[in-house]
Amino acid sequence: MVRLMPFYYTAIDVFSFLSIKNSFPFSTFCSSLRLLCKEQKMEMGDLLTKYFTGDITGEEKETLFRELGHDDELKKDFCAMQNILALAEALPEENDESVGADSYRSFAARLKKRRMKQLFLHAWRYAAVVCLVAASAYFLTLHWVNKERNLQFTEISAPSGQRVKVTLPDGTTAWIGPCSTLRYANSFNHGTRNVELSGSTYFDVAHNPDKPFRVSTGRYMITVLGTRFNAMAYPENEHFEVDLIEGSVQIDNLSDDTDRLVLKPLEQAIIKNNRLYKKISNFDNEEYLKNGVVHFKRCLLGEVLKKVSLWQGVGLTIDNEVDVNYPVTGKIRQSDSLESILRALQSVVRFHYEIIDEKHIRIYR
């Protein structure tokens, strides 16, 4: 049950009048509280009534607001009366109408005809406002609910060690990397071309200057018109990099308006000191597309191991004794098994590994 501070007697009758004339559900509330308010000061109650019906004079308004300044109880009742219309959304009780009718008859008997007529006009004015607000809220809510219900997504995931090639509705081709997910709404290509990426994907974007292609990675937004690039963004590791093959891309940090990069072909964007940073890219486009082979040219061992763990979907622990800054040059096929990749790395770098379980590996000296 809704509970509010008691109103002044005459003010309650005004809202009881509103209830019966407009079938609002708070008539029972008003009627049940009337007995609690009989002991209140009639003078302030009358001023409250005049204020909310628009009949208060300037002098009376000054008196009311002066009293509100040092009467906490009156202030609470004033605030409650301001919010009374919110009760219109409460569910009606079975005897609301009969109780409201009694309230109205009691109300009408205490007021003069001209007074009642004036209040009646004000009541319908307030009722119209409530109906308009309630109707607007209803249709706005219905619109968003229906929109949410109609909004469906296509989600494509690639398992560990595998790639998945898909063609999006606009003609864009995407090669989804291992342990990665690409997601887009059924409204894709209807005004916008937005996709969500978790993991790594190579995009060959269909050119359309009227509909920019946007890739959201959670923290960053990549915007292009038509280009080829590879994006890697694993949120659980905060690993992010973009390699541009041709065209142009813009990368925005969604949490920092000053952090933005525009890449040219053969440039790579990475995170350095928590900001976007670009350098020369060593990404081999053709080899990756044909065979899923990733080239490393003087890439640090720690970075190579991190990428391997992301492709394989396993956790990684590297002991302090391991030289993670050792430069590695070579090729790794994403579809190879975890052990075969680690053994290949052991041929050029001195380390040992332990597969603790299917979800975690340890690298040590």
TrEMBL record:
Transmembrane portions of the chain: 123-145
Coiled-coil residues: none
InterPro entries xref list: FecR (IPR006860), FecR_C (IPR032508), Ferrdict_sens_TM (IPR012373)
Cross-referenced Gene3D superfamilies: 2.60.120.1440, 3.55.50.30
Location of the Protein FecR C-terminal domain: 295-362
Molecular function in Gene Ontology: sigma factor antagonist activity
Keyword annotations of the record: Membrane, Transmembrane, Transmembrane helix
Domain FecR protein span(s) in chain numbering: 155-250
This protein's name: FecR family protein
Record organism: Prevotella heparinolytica
